Amino acid sequence: MYLRSSNFILPTVFVITVNKKSIKKGLIVMQVIFKAHRFSDNPIALIICLIVFLLNCYAAWKVFEKADEEGWKAIIPIYNAYIYQKITFGDRYAWTFILFFIPYLGLVFALYSLYEMYKKFFFTDFGAILGAFFPYIANLYIAFNDDCHFSERNTFLNDFLDK
Q: C-alpha angle 55/97/163, rounded to 5°?
């Protein structure tokens, strides 16, 4: 109903609804009111989104290049997830990107994969955890920081599966 190619839906207001029926049933209903924002109506929002998108593409390109992969692989959907897993766990366990498509497990495994990848770029434990939750910022940090170099170190998953 709201979703069209020219519209983006952003949650704007949370409303907690309590009425007599819901009180009798012990329910409190939280509704999210959506407001459609058209980028064609707001060119500044479109420009900001384009800048953020291009920065993220550039950062992913540079991360791939620092990990000795070709940069163009970063902009191809699904294939870039495979390459990220190849960077993180090596050629032998690159198939693990399939785990991203399993509900709940995919989210946990994605956080773990990002943590391990940022550890390979010499992040501290705390920095790698922050990078897992804010990957766009961490990728920008790697892209613009010459001190971040890729290292081939074993991950916990590599050690566990090799036994």
A: 130
Q: Bridge partners of 13?
A: 33
Six-digit token string for 34? 């959506």
- Residue with tokens 């991360």, as numbered in its chain: 63
For residues 96 and 158, the answer to whether their CB atoms sit within 8 Å is: no
User: In terms of C-beta distances under 8 Å and separation of at least 24 residues, what long-range contacts does 145-151 make, across chains too?
Assistant: 147/122, 148/66, 148/121, 148/122, 149/66, 149/121, 149/122, 150/66, 150/67, 150/68, 150/87, 150/120, 150/121, 151/120, 151/121, 151/122
pLDDT tens, 31-44? Answer: 444 444 555 567 88
Predicted structure pTM score:
0.65
List of residues 6+ apart from 132 with CB closer than 8 A: 111, 112, 114, 115, 118
